[in-house]
């Protein structure tokens, strides 16, 4: 088995630099880090994790808790997190809370005894108890990803939710729509609240009246989303000409609801959603999407977590009552325009013919 000294010789750096890259204990320059990573791959280096854990009192293992691993958004985050962890000599343990806050709390308790840090995508619209928050605070560092739990302050990495929704709604406005409905997930989630805020701001900036009757919300259950979509479309006094969904699960459910009413996109109603829909190439028309940088979210979350792990001892030694500033990373989304939202252009071509 290759040794760290052999890695240092091949990479052309000191043994201390190799140790710092592998342990993540001290930052090194990106060029040196890349040289060490290349040497690790070339020599097929595998650290002795048991010996290192006994020496450093660290497991070099991170944990991530997600609410539903079957939703495509979350495996993409896990992949980014796993890549960042592996590059830095860490393993990543993945747990699925199945949307249960009770199970989520149990999983966090389990991980606290076995990992150096935790990434958390909270299960949903649950407020953390003071006892649970205190228990988390007494354990390894935690970084919240995508969703921000109510009553729990921590480092966090997610998309710019406000900007993502604003981007999608402004696109629909640019196509000539003024009656735009928004379909959100549970509005007890802070990211859904921010997306609703972005929708309203886009309308206000365009001088368009915000109609409360065009704000629709449902759980993440397929049947609930379809039922709400059908009910709202049938009862709407002012029929929306466009619909914007704030996440992929809601987006798919809304499309099913629209199709169940015999409506087509974009002929009857223009449509756009946050998140790429699975099997996108099978949708006809193809779906306009505000794409979140899911891989980067997971990758950056691990970087923030490891930074917090490195600084944890300094925080513990700080004077009583002092607090470290939490890191709040917000990443931009990108708009991918496809046929589902191009209603005005399609109709104009039809009239021209």
Which residue ranges are poorly predicted, with pLDDT under 50 across at least 5 consecutive positions? 316-323, 344-353
Q: What does the main sheet amount to?
A: 6 strands, parallel
Strand content: 15-25%
Number of domains: 3
Number of helical stretches of at least 4 residues: 13
Strands across the major sheet, in which order?
2-1-3-4-5-11
Query: What are the secondary-structure elements, in order, as H or E?
Result: HHHHEHEHEHEEHEHEHEHEEHEEH
CATH architecture of the largest domain: 3-Layer(aba) Sandwich
Query: CATH superfamily membership of the largest domain, which one?
Result: Response regulator
Distance between the termini: 72 Å
Q: Tell me the Rg in angstroms.
A: 24 Å
Helix-and-strand structural type? alpha/beta
For this structure, the CATH topology of the largest domain is Rossmann fold
Per the principal axes of the C-alpha atoms, what is the gross shape? Answer: elongated
Q: Percent range for helical residues?
A: 40-55%
